Amino acid sequence: MQITAAVMEKADGALTRRTIKLEEVELEGPREDEVLVRIHSCGVCGTDRGCIHGLEPFPTPGVLGHEGAGIVEEVGSRVTGVRPGDRVMIGFPYCGRCRWCRGGNPRYCEQGKELMFGGFRLDGSTPMKRAGGEPLAGRFFQQSSWATHAIALERQLAKVPDGLDLDQAGPYGCSISTGAGAVLNELRPRPGSSIAIFGAGNVGLAAVMAARLTGATTIIAIDRVPERLALARELGATHTLEHGAATVAELKELTKGALDYSIEATDGSNLVAEAVAALGILGVCAMVGGAKMTASVKVNHPDVLLNGKRIIGVLGGGGHTPDFLVSLMELQRDGRFPLDKLIRFYDFADVNQAIDDSDSGRTVKPVLRMAV
């Protein structure tokens, strides 16, 4: 079938700018374990932008987009969990067979890196080609949903609850579940505890909203942009700090040296060292923010050892896919997780403007609306 997709011919280079244009391309039907989804909307995520800016790997020419939401149009012969007409959003891909998937940790699938960034199925094939037959990397996160239609694996789909706007469901596939899951699945703040969130972008603000649902009584958001800090207050932060040289000292003063949890959710700033230094005894730092593939973290060895501090990596918020995603969407539907306050919608044709606005910080969470 013929569809419209935002094809990235090349990523940003040292002296060149990306090339992303809408094209008419060919998409094959679903295989036995796959589903064809007519995409209504798709978020613009920091991971998409990382690939665009050459910070994360992705082959070109190809199609990005991994926060898709839409309507099931066709299912493969072995698909039983969804049927045509179902409203779905597309989450993280996973193989379902490795020890981590079978053990209930699909976010850490042994083949996850290839499934997310390889651009193709695990057998090397792609369902997406240009009109002339040139193969496109059309399996970004096994969906490539910057398109009017996408092929996805059945197991990565979550049904969108009745009563929730379908066009607000896509971001739960990555950025929003990343921030919320770090709090709800991994840190699980105890009553009366304190948590500091470095970075008030869409991931960090999702963490703020999630922290508000827990017993944490001190929720601190840290950013350089005053408007983001004001939004963090609106979403549940009890305190905000404008990031600077004195941030660690300010956190220690605010929490009397007893900060329980921290989350590093910046988009490439790599403030992990600060997030660890600010912790009190037995504090836990969750790393969720993006960084260059060559980035490293330096912390003070005696500080970590003598105070029993822990540093954990959290990919995609952890948790069970897609059950956790459904839970978050139900919270929003019930008025307890106001994701709509982060979103700004863009026409699909304005994909490059949405990317630029996300890069500049003008928009917290851009969501592309495809013509349907």
TrEMBL record:
Its cofactor is Zn(2+). One of its GO terms (molecular function) is aryl-alcohol dehydrogenase (NAD+) activity. Residues 17-368 form the Enoyl reductase (ER) domain. This is Aryl-alcohol dehydrogenase. Keywords: Metal-binding, Oxidoreductase, Zinc. InterPro entries: ADH-like_C, ADH-like_N, ADH_Zn_CS, ER, GroES-like_sf, NAD(P)-bd_dom_sf. It holds the Pfam family ADH_N. Belongs to the zinc-containing alcohol dehydrogenase family. Its EC number is 1.1.1.90. The keyword Repeat does not apply.
